[in-house]
Amino acid sequence: QVQLVESGGGLVQAGGSRRLSCAISGRSFSGYTLAWFRQTPGKEREFVAFIRGSGGTTYYADSVKGRFTISRDNAKNAVFLQMNSLKPEDTAVYSCAAANQYYRDAYSSSNYAYWGQGTQVTVSS
């Protein structure tokens, strides 16, 4: 059974940093795309970043580009999100996701088969 478990969320002041981790168990995703999404109450899930399995190509939402960095450790079957220069509008539940095949449109949540339960990040002003 595949499980994704996020950690690292919490309360942080604006301008601060936070590093999220997502530990994956049940199978290896070394060759597949991993991603982070976020969601706030009453809003649709929003793409944050993805990282390809082969080559490690990354892609970011415009709202986080230059501030967030996604990375992965295939040996540990984990994906990370380093968040710097945090803003109050970054407050959300952050979830990691894993795809089970290649999709060109890797910023669409519908293309991810496996999801974590999410971790809350709250940025105070």
Task: Annotate the secondary structure layout.
Elements: E1 3-7, E2 10-13, E3 18-25, E4 34-39, E5 46-51, E6 58-60, E7 68-73, E8 78-83, E9 92-98, E10 114-115, E11 119-124
Parallel strand pairs: 2-11
Antiparallel strand pairs: 1-3, 3-8, 4-5, 4-9, 5-6, 7-8, 9-10, 9-11
Word description of this protein:
This protein is an all-beta fold and 125 residues long. Helix content is 0%, strand content 47%. It is built from no helices and 11 strands. It has strands spanning 3-7, 10-13, 18-25, 34-39, 46-51, 58-60, 68-73, 78-83, 92-98, 114-115, 119-124. The strands form 2 sheets. Strands 2, 4, 5, 6, 9, 10 and 11 form a 7-stranded mixed β-sheet that branches. It has a 4-stranded antiparallel β-sheet with strand order 1-3-8-7, with no helix packed on it. A hairpin with a 6-residue loop joins strand 5 and strand 6 (58-60). It is globular and about 40 Å long.
